[in-house]
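Two quick folds needed for the group meeting slides. Do the first one here.
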Amino acid sequence: MTSSKRLMLIVNGEEMELTARPADTLLYVLRVRLGLTGSKPGCLNGDCGACTILADDIPIKSCLMLAVEGEGKRIQTIEGLKNAPIQKAFVEHFAFQCGYCTSGFIMNAHALARTDLHADEETITEWLQSNICRCTGYKEIQQAIHSVLRQGAKGTDPLAQPKEGR
């Protein structure tokens, strides 16, 4: 019999106490236990990137991370972005079709904007290699990312967003 462990997770700026089994992935806990369904279960082996979240501002595939490994880290999901410029850019550039992979791309692009506002085409392409889209193609996604990076280069905060919880 597997015993559960008490965890304190910081998700989208909010402390959340819960119990999880040792083998529960962070993706499972976010979706099933916390009701944050924006991160998607795609391949469940780390290839597609649909489950990408940020842990201490680093893109992580939550299907590969155990929930217990999230303790003490700042976890950010797509729900925590709440109308961030990168989300608006994806809409403006029609950077998605079915939308299943979109949250993973947005989280990855948000992390890129935090890391390198002057990322060139090669860097953007490198960052996008950890996400797969079977519908749209990558041109519109790259255009959305470029538009947000240009905002940052002009002095507009490309990461500006409300500071709300969940």
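Then this one, please, same format:
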Amino acid sequence: MEEVTLPDGQRGGVLGLGAVLAATSHSDSSSPILRGLFVRERLLCQPLGTPPADVPAIPEIASDATTRERFEQHTADPVCASCHQYIDPVGFGFEAYDAVGRYRARLGRHGRRGADGRGHTRPVLHLG
């Protein structure tokens, strides 16, 4: 193990650790759903339950779409939105980090959008 110095403003607390970010991702892509669920269920103790068995697949979206663009479909469908309105906004807050927890300044397969962590999102709703 080796200590590294990181630029100010890119990391903070346990949620900014590479191990946490990698554990809440897929092997080849970040996952706002896994990251949002981790925060809601493990840290805030707000269990959301399992999704219904008949959840439809997410429709195909342009290959250069950002993760946020791909997953915004969840909140467009009222059935999906019943849970994803609580999950996705939290998970989108981690999109400045890739699948293994590296900070990234650009998003999308072609690096076409910024990921400065100051993007606009829906309010994070409280369960209760």
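Slide caption for protein two: Helices lie at 18-23, 32-43, 67-71, 73-76, 78-92.
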